[in-house]
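Hey, sorry to bother you again with one of my protein questions. A protein chain has come my way and I'm curious about its shape. It would help a lot if you went through both lines with me. I owe you a coffee for this, so here goes:
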Amino acid sequence: MPRKQPAVPAEPPDPADSAEAEAVSGAAVPGAAAPESAGPGAARLAAADSSVAAVVARNVRARRTERGMTLGELAERSGVSRRMLTLIEQGQANPSLGTVERIGRAVGAHFAELVGARTGPGLSLAGPASMITLWTSPAGGYGRMAVTGSGLHRTELWDWLLMPGDRYRAVQDPAGTEELLLVSDGVLVLEFADGRHPVAAGAAARFPADQQYAYVNESDRPVRFARNTLPAPLPAS
């Protein structure tokens, strides 16, 4: 009999998610409440990339099975409804990035592993076509995971492009998560609860990601930047 895993400490709710109302393949689930409007720039998986949803579905199901967890147990540990977990495992849901993060921590996997990033040791080369696009905007902006570290904490390197008017609204990450940014083109505006901070081309920034924040392009030209995410350690199993 598999040993039941201890519950993960409760994390702040993801405002981009509703347990019983989620965007699912661009339409409402038959018989379900209407999809929640998460607002402009909400941090969801790129809806157009069904391959990412399929990878997440396969990896969540495999991790849950390896741990001998039922859907009910995973729902209790992650704070994600059983109904939503079922849709995710079927590849029919368009969950927020925060939801994928919470599920990963509940099954002992980093976000990068669930979305299918290559995490093995040795040289890893990634061209644009092999990067994993996880966020897009109607104007053509994107956030894509380029490469990840092979160490214990699975450091993530992202390539970001914000078109004029784009806003990426993130949700609070687990305590201990940090982000490091280097802007190569344009002026990136970082929004926090306590204020706004412009970061011009050639400048860098670091901040704790266990808070709500946003990336904003208020200019009339594209903003390009690299992001390094240092995930918090996974809970002890």
